[in-house]
Specification:
The chain is mostly beta strands. About 10% of the residues lie in helices and about 50% in strands.
Length: about 170
């Protein structure tokens, strides 16, 4: 019996050693690894509340933050065999937090709310400028480059996790 227990323990340790490691600076929940989390710097001073400029000629994939809004981005990697979905995001730095995507329509970049962001089995979802993102609407304070903010992400299967986003200039 004792030999069997030792062999079982060795087997478990071997499996753990062979499992893919989470990238440095990432957060794991279930089979999901969330990495590269960042948010756009934004200032409340002199801003028009709730304005968003979407001109494609302004750079940054046509996404320039104005007013009291910002956005957060990340990569969500699914190492498991079951698809998942980011269904909700929250943060204390904004009055409202929504999941958004953008599309080009008649040479104008348009943003729209989505009910979630699919994370395929053994694949990944990339939230990036000009694509899916977490929209921070009605900021409650300035977001200054170099500081960190917290986002609470809720997934359909993996559950809820808190991640830290570095604030950066676009």
């Amino acid at each position: 019996m004792r030999v069997r227990s030792i062999l079982s323990l060795i087997g478990l340790l071997w499996l753990a050693a062979c499992a893919p490691a989470a990238p440095a600076g990432s957060t794991t929940v279930g089979s999901l690894q969330i990495s590269g989390v960042w948010a756009r710097a934004a200032s409340l001073m002199g801003a028009q509340p709730t304005e968003m400029s979407m001109g494609a000629s302004e750079g940054g994939m046509g996404m320039e933050m104005a007013g009291t809004n910002s956005a957060a981005y990340m990569v969500i990697r699914n190492t498991g065999g079951q698809a998942d979905k980011l269904i909700k995001a929250e943060s204390d730095v904004a009055k409202s937090v929504e999941l958004h995507n953008v599309k080009m329509e008649n040479d104008v970049m348009k943003m729209f709310q989505v009910d979630g962001v699919d994370v395929p089995a053994n694949g990944q979802a990339e939230l990036k400028p000009g694509s899916f993102h977490v929209m921070l609407i009605g900021l409650t304070r300035d977001l200054k480059a170099g500081e960190k903010i917290q986002l609470t992400l809720t997934f359909a299967t993996a559950g809820t996790v808190v991640v830290e986003a570095e604030v950066r200039e676009p």
